[in-house]
Amino acid sequence: MIWEILWGFEPALITGFVIAGLILNITPGADFLYIMSSGLSGGSRIGVAAALGVNLGVVVHILAAAAGLSALLFAHPAAYDLIRICGAAYLAWMAVQVWRRSSTVARARSCPDVRQAARRGFFINVSNPKTALFIFAFIPQFTDPTIGPIWVQILILGAIFLLNGAVFTLCLGVGSGYFAAALGRRVGVLNKISAILLGGLAARLIID
Hints:
Layout: H1 2-8, H2 11-26, H3 30-42, H4 44-67, H5 71-75, H6 77-99, H7 104-110, H8 114-126, H9 129-138, H10 150-182, H11 187-207
Helix pairs in contact: 2-10, 3-4, 3-8, 3-10, 3-11, 4-8, 4-9, 4-10, 6-11
């Protein structure tokens, strides 16, 4: 059934979906800034781990969209605000921790390991209700009831969106790490930049 539905999509529709997804992935947001700050402060391995965690969070949102669970956020604004505030508080806490890393020694001692970076990326993505609402509002626009069950189409389109996003975010994590390595001993400056990015993201979640 999956292959039948996949081949049932109009080529122009899939092309438009891929292009739209790419544009949305390269637009700076919570995931973009977190992965970049992780790569800058911890190197390529940490940046890649952060990207993997973020994409695992996207999987959760896609499954929720297929099940229709994201619609609950529309019906309960208080739940949306609670999740948003918790996510912003966590980002603010991370910004403070990163800001305190002022030297190479501090970086070696306090920089998150691969598992921590992935776990934080997952939490940041899952705790951002905007991601759930975006996926729930974006992907269904490209579905067609005449070619099969909507939930299956959402899973297929979600997999395509996830693949595109994974390629971009992994490249972002690696690139940020190489940029940090190129600056050598300027670890203190990179940590300050990362902290500012995370703090700005926390403020953005609260303001929006």
